[in-house]
């Protein structure tokens, strides 16, 4: 375990593993080292890359300095890239993919970018996220209702059914989710207005590097539509679908695709 300091003085904790070209992995909502799909992915990739996993601000062992802005999280990634030697490949999953995309758009030294299922809602294949969702989420957190905030995120943000979320609430991991519920608005800000049900605009004009947009063929239709739409608006992107995979993608299925893309 190591630490670096972001531009605003926030301490960011990270783990470095393996050897080879540097690769930074960016987590999605409420995930952090020890509770993330990127943990298994890092192990699969460490034979070919120097892999950096980290706790996004407000989670795990990293600090958190307010007020929050997406720019601060981009600066966190910039600090990690500096630790990596000044340049690194970048991979993000779920809302972490949206953050990685924003980091590349803001000019970080990233030669290639890979994204797995950013949660963009681009049509009517699922209900759009309500316009007042961020305000109601903030209100729940200010009232100390962390469980309510997590439930709102799972039902309105992710689009899970009420019965599924009711089952989740009795599982041991629900307590872990509540502990990082205060960071849900961070991911809401990162995704921005790209869950409105409208087609994606050309919102990332500076992302001209080779990019790979990936989904699983068993993921929800709405999510796959968002990924394919993203591949169309990025000028140098290719689109890849992993057979048999869902949003909870297996590291053994994803790692070979990333290795081929980054090193090919």
What does this structure look like?
The chain is of the alpha/beta class and 264 residues long. The chain contains ten helices and eight strands. Strands 1-2-4-3-5-6-7-8 form an eight-stranded mixed beta sheet, sandwiched between helices. Strand 5, helix 3 and strand 6 form a beta-alpha-beta unit. Helix 2 packs across helix 3.
Task: Explain the layout of strands and helices.
Blueprint: E1 2-5, E2 11-18, E3 22-26, H1 37-45, E4 50-54, H2 70-83, E5 89-93, H3 95-105, E6 113-116, H4 133-142, H5 146-157, H6 162-168, H7 173-179, H8 184-191, E7 211-216, H9 221-233, E8 237-242, H10 251-263
Parallel strand pairs: 3-4, 3-5, 5-6, 6-7, 7-8
Antiparallel strand pairs: 1-2, 2-4
Brief descriptors of the model:
264 residues, alpha/beta, 8-stranded mixed sheet, 10 helices, 39% helix
Shape: globular
Q: Low-confidence parts lasting 5 or more residues at pLDDT below 50?
A: none
| Helix-strand makeup class | alpha/beta
Count of helices?
A: 10
């Amino acid at each position: 375990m190591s630490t670096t300091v972001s531009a605003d003085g926030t301490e960011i904790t990270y783990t470095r593993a393996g050897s080879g070209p540097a690769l930074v992995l960016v987590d999605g909502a409420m995930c952090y080292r020890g509770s993330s799909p990127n943990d298994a992915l890092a192990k699969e990739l460490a034979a070919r890359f120097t892999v950096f996993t980290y706790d996004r601000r407000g989670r795990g062992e990293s600090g958190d300095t307010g007020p929050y802005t997406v720019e601060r999280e981009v600066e966190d990634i910039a600090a990690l890239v500096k630790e990596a030697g000044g340049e690194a490949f970048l991979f993000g999953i779920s809302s972490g993919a949206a953050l990685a995309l924003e980091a590349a758009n803001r000019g970080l030294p990233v030669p290639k970018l890979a994204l797995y299922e950013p949660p963009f809602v681009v049509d009517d294949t699922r209900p759009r996220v309500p316009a007042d969702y961020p305000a109601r989420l903030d209100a729940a957190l200010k009232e100390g209702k962390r469980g309510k905030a997590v439930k709102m995120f799972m039902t309105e943000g992710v689009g899970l059914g009420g019965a599924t979320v009711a089952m989740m609430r009795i599982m041991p991991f629900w307590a872990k989710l509540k502990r990082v519920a205060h960071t849900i608005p961070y991911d809401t800000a990162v995704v921005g207005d790209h869950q409105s049900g409208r087609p994606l605009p050309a919102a990332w004009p500076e992302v001209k590097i080779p990019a790979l947009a990936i989904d699983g063929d068993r993921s929800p239709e709405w999510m796959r539509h968002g990924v394919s739409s993203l591949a169309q608006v990025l000028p140098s992107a290719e689109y890849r679908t992993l057979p048999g995979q869902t949003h909870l993608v297996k590291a053994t299925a994803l790692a070979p695709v990333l290795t081929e893309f980054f090193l090919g």
